[in-house]
Amino acid sequence: MSDYAIGDPQPVAASAPYTYFLPTTTRLNAIAVGDLVQLIIRGIPPGTKYDAERMWVRVTAIDGNAMVGDLDNEPFDIPHLKPGHEIRFRRSDIIAIVLQGAERNRIGLDERRDFWERCLVDRCVLDDGVRVGYLYRTTPDLDEPDDEYPDSGWRIRGEQGDDSDETMEAREVAYVAVGVVLNRDDSWLLLIDAPIGAAFRRNKVSGEFEPVAA
User: Fold this and answer.
1) Does 112 map to a domain?
2) Number of domains in the chain
3) Beta carbons of 44 and 5 less than 8 angstroms apart
């Protein structure tokens, strides 16, 4: 019986594709012996504090999608695993990669866009499964000097039966990453680079977004 299990990150990535990023195929295919990969590892029996830990493994052998490596850090709560412990895993289990050498470590990093810029969105879109019904892009004005990610300027309203000004003003809103909204409803993704001043409303018959006056 194995003394560890490898967590599968694919279901989480599928449920949050705009905020939970796995390595690109190009980057996965570039892995060679000596490179570092990060895995989700669960101890058997489990730890007392953590269900699983993200840990680095240095690759020692590759056979197609099957890989072997040595644990490269000290677990916090899996006392029977130590640095150097042999770990077997699949390419699809990998959640992060450090390729050896500055040039190699750039491979595949520019293939995917991230969506960490912030936006203002109705809570009903995030919490209640309400579709985006109206969105507009204004001059960003919610930035703070020490913010890691800037305000995108997007203001996103949920589509509900009563879209009167009074009802919309009463809705609870959240300031979150654009990717969090896209995880719930990405039907407006093609509009994301629209300029400041753009506004769109979903046609209730066709379901398509149409430009409107801001």
Assistant:
1) no
2) 2
3) yes
In a domain, 60, yes or no: yes
Instruction: Say what the pTM is.
Output: 0.81
Q: How far apart are CA 187 and CA 208, in angstroms?
A: 9
Residue 34 Rama label (left phi>0; alpha psi -120 to 50; beta): left
Residues 93 and 38 in one domain: yes
pLDDT of residue 49: 83
Helix, strand counts (H, E) of the chain = 5, 12
Cα–Cα distance list, 52 to 9, 43, 44, 111, 211 (Å): 12, 7, 10, 29, 47
- Which domain covers residue 132, as residue numbers? 118-211
Query: Exposed, middle or buried, 22 (CB in 10 Å: 0-12/13-18/19+)?
Result: buried
Q: Give me the tens of pLDDT residue by residue for the chain, a chain 214 residues long.
A: 578 999 999 999 999 999 999 999 999 999 999 999 999 999 888 877 888 999 999 999 999 999 999 999 999 888 888 999 999 999 999 999 999 998 898 898 877 889 999 999 999 999 999 999 999 999 998 888 888 999 999 999 999 766 655 566 778 999 999 999 999 999 999 999 999 999 999 998 999 999 998 7
Are the beta carbons of 15 and 50 closer than 8 angstroms? Answer: no
191 located within any domain: yes
The verdict on 133 and 96 lying in the same domain is no
Residue ending a domain, choose from 76, 106, 136:
106
Contact 39/94 with Cβ under 8 angstroms? yes
User: Which CATH number do you get for residue 72?
Assistant: 2.30.30
For residue 161, being part of any structural domain is answered with: yes
